Amino acid sequence: MEWIDIRSDTVTRPTPAMWDAMSSAEVGDDVYGEDPTVNRLQKEAAVRMGKEGALFVPSGTMGNIAAILAHCQRGDEIIIGDRAHTYIFEAGGTAALGGIHPRVVPNEPDGTIQPEAIVGAIRSEDAHFPESRLVCLENTHNLCGGTPIDVAYTEQVAEIAHSAGLKLHIDGARIFNAAVALNVKSADLVREADSVTFCLSKGLCAPVGSVICGDEDFIRRAHRMRKQLGGGMRQAGVIAAAGLVALDQMIDRLAEDHRKAKELAVELTKIDWLVLENAAPATNMIFFRLAEQTPITENELVQGLRSHRIRIGHPRVGRFRIVTHYWVDDSALESILTAFQSLAA
Ligand SMILES: *Cc1c(COP(=O)(O)O)cnc(C)c1O
Question: Residue 37: CB within 6 Å of ligand 1?
Answer without folding.
Answer: no
